[in-house]
Amino acid sequence: MFLFFIFLSGFLSVLTQNIIIREIYMIFHGNELTYGLVISFWLFGGGIGALLGRKINEEKLYLSFLFLSLYFPFSIFLLRFLPTLLGVKSGEILSYFLLIKILFLLMPLYLGFGLIFALGQKKISRLAQGELRGITRPYIFAAIGDLLGGIIFSYVFVLSFSPTRKLILVSALFLIPVILLKGRRFIPLFLIFLLFFAFTGIEGTLKRTTEKFYFGFKVREIIETKYGRYIELQKDDQISFFSNGVLSYTFPDELTAEFIHLPILLSPSEKENILYLGLPSPEVIKQLSKYKEITIVYPDTKIIDFLSKYLNKELLRRVNFIASDPRLFLKNTSEKFDGIFLGMGDPLSISGNRFYTFEFAKLLSNRMEEDGVVSFLISSGEDYLSESVLDYNSLIFWTYKSYFPYYYFIPGLTLRLVFSKSPLYYEEKRIKEKVKKLGLFYLDEYIILSSLPPLRIREIEKKLNNNFIGFNTDNRPKAFLLSLLLHLEKQNQRLKILKNLFDTPFIFILFFIPIPILLKKTGFRVSIIGAFSFGISYFCVLILQIKYGNLYYLVGLITGSFMFGIGIGTYLSERLKLEDKLKKPFLFLSILLSFQYLLIEIEFFMPSILVLIPIISFSAGMVVGWTYTNAGVIFEKKGVRAPAPLVYALDLIGGCIGAFLFSFIFLPVIGIIPTLLLSLGICIFGYLFA
Q1: What SS3 state is found at 439?
Q2: How confident is the model at residue 304 (pLDDT cuts 50, 70, 90)?
Q3: Considering the entire predicted model, what is its pTM?
Q4: What contacts 24+ positions apart, CB below 8 Å, involve 641-646?
Q5: How confident is the model at residue 512 (pLDDT cuts 50, 70, 90)?
Q6: Which ranges in 548-666 belong to alpha helices (H)?
Q7: Is the predicted pLDDT of residue 621 greater than 70, yes or no?
Q8: What is the CA angle 469-471-475, rounded to 5?
């Protein structure tokens, strides 16, 4: 029965972890740094809980499940209400210091899972009378639960249940061990949770908490899909659309919509075939439909259906909607376009960064006619370019300039960049004729001229051309970090540590390489293996984001694969010869890191990556599972009391440190590829100098 409890805790651990990550991502527009921070706190709390569990009587196991059943729904509602209570404005990027405070409030949740594993393992070890299976079987059953939880989250929970129903169902499942251990008195509470789960009115709770956050707005519709949460708000006659906490557009605003023509007006040739990558407003779609052909590419089919309700049937027939990742679409199509508009917003994540890279600019160049234009908006400064704004703007400018020698700036709080392989220029007569032909109501030659102040444009051109700070690439996402820093500064949130890390000399990072030589004790090596095993799992998430884009719904599968690998590794360790020194894990980690390097650098057949990524994560988990058993036996020989919870805690704390270092230190300082190579170097040292 206790093995079942361990299995259930693993199952529910992955569900709760990914529900929290998804809520933070959707409420505060989270990114890969947020993911690393959440996982870091989760692992730290689990490790401390496991250490505390060594001192607590295992008969108290049911209390941990009961506490989690009640605290988990409270923690989710806490996440939804805290922004309002703390004065965070709608559409604002959450300060990382504020996020850390929120994660500390969730710490009891993490501690609870660590306690459950430690108490359950102690009970099972006592029943096994000191046999090796008393150490291995709890980890195996927890890992099976983790795998099932990852699969259920990625392919059932995300698609089938509303956010509120998910947390109520999970809370009810926490009560199963409580009922089995303490009898019928907890059945009424279980039935109350099930009643709430079945009650249709429970869906209104998300709408009510959303209206509290977006004060003064009426929530018209909330759309939950595997790609994220979309919220349609109304205030007076204005409708605003938010995607994962960030404003996508507001309409009606016909003047702003008509400005979409301006990049095309700067080109002397006629444009017929238009491509829009991203989520346009209904008014922008109506404006682009004035051209002969229009294609809109966005991965989420439900949002395409949502836009359709604002467009008439004739217009819908003219627009070619394609449900695909924009980058994959460009890679797979052979069609060329006259005008390409990028509607991605600022790159506030690795997924967004991939549309402002050297590699993507090359892809656009191959899919654009020789006299075509590509245009997009990025945050800037209307009258003054601060250091952060200048670095961010010039980085993207130089990246695109590599493939498009001709460019034009349309200045403002948001800078519209227009690029082409043919000359771009303002010619009043030609523009006046085009405006008349398009039948524009607000945008005329006078408004156009006032939007293109020559002195301001020349000033921006001079500053950007004189401020070369390198190129933005898939594997060194500078634009992501500079964009994030810029948004935090605009909200008066000081996060200079990101800027300082960005400027840190690479030589500083090399001091990490000798760590395995200096820290040879078993406990340290367990933590180091845990850190780099998590690093491999984290790289799996990054590779998915680079290659495919916004696939956070698959994080549960990656986590589940990793944890299932731990179970298999633990099971195999019962049958394999163990070693006195933890040496082989570093060799296997080196092999996996080498393969990840090849996976990023070499163009694989894309669907195969979706198969390879879980396999790599699974393999890293196997290394942890084998290490868990081996280290437990080493500690037991040394006479350490309750060695299994200790190894479990050391592994989680190592993973916690790894999560923080990879997401907040290595990635910002040296980028993805150098971090992979650094990790490979450390693991090779760990193997050679064990």
Answers
A1: coil
A2: confident
A3: 0.85
A4: 641/54, 642/54, 642/118, 642/122, 642/125, 643/135, 644/121, 644/125, 644/134, 644/135, 644/138, 644/139, 645/50, 645/51, 645/53, 645/54, 645/117, 645/118, 645/121, 645/122, 646/50, 646/51, 646/54, 646/523
A5: low
A6: 555-573, 584-601, 606-637, 643-661
A7: yes
A8: 125
